[in-house]
Amino acid sequence: MVTVKNMENALRNPSAAYAAKTTVEEVEKSGDVAEPLKKMHIAGLCDYAAAVIISSNRRNAKAVVKGFGYAYGGYSSDLALRVWGSFQWAGAAAKKALKQSGLRCVDFAEISEPYAHTELMVLDELGLLGEPVERALESGELGFSGGFPVNPSGGCIGMGYPLNAAGLQRVVQSVKLLSTGRWRTCLTASPDGEIVDAGAVVVLSGEV
Q: What does the alpha-carbon distance between residue 175 and residue 65 come to, in Å, rounded to a whole number?
């Protein structure tokens, strides 16, 4: 369902390389990579370049950084101590960023998701929803027109996964979405990697 949502969201994004209208059945029939991971659960690679200008002049800015948080969960150089099934860094990083911002909630989220389940794992740890993540996904709450859209840009699955630049991609897309005026505030989250359980959260506001 994450793959379907993000690929369809990407149809609105001219920068997306993997935009498509698909179904859960098509995703599940795309072939096994490592059970239960399917081929369409994995973001395809893409070339990506972006420049971000950070300004202290709010009159000229399209968005303002309201808060930033970075945190570690667990670390293991050989994966032996890795806690699988959760991203422990996300909750701590979000808490820091939201405290700095003075906001209790945001209008939407952009999450780097090299795999479809990454989006749900990060979202679960962020603690932004008032209901279980799977229930919010099934009800359409996380869709483009839902109460709390997640990856309305299409995310990495819809846009393509840029190696070492996924977090930057999410920030740039967040600013673009805020500049449309549809939403006022956003949280972007991006894990650092697969071995180090760490990542960053940025809270942005389009109210300048």
A: 10
Domain spans, the chain: 2-205
Q: Residue 197 and residue 151: Cα distance in Å, rounded?
A: 21
Domain boundaries 2-205, CATH class: alpha beta
User: Degrees (nearest 5) of the Cα angle 164, 98, 148?
Assistant: 80
pTM above 0.85, yes or no: yes
CA–CA separation, 56 vs 58, rounded Å? 6
Six token digits for residue 51: 């420049």
- Reference 19, options 155, 134, 132; nearest CA is 155
- 145-176 pLDDT, tens digit per residue, is 999 999 999 999 999 999 889 999 999 999 99
Three-class secondary structure of residue 73 per DSSP: strand
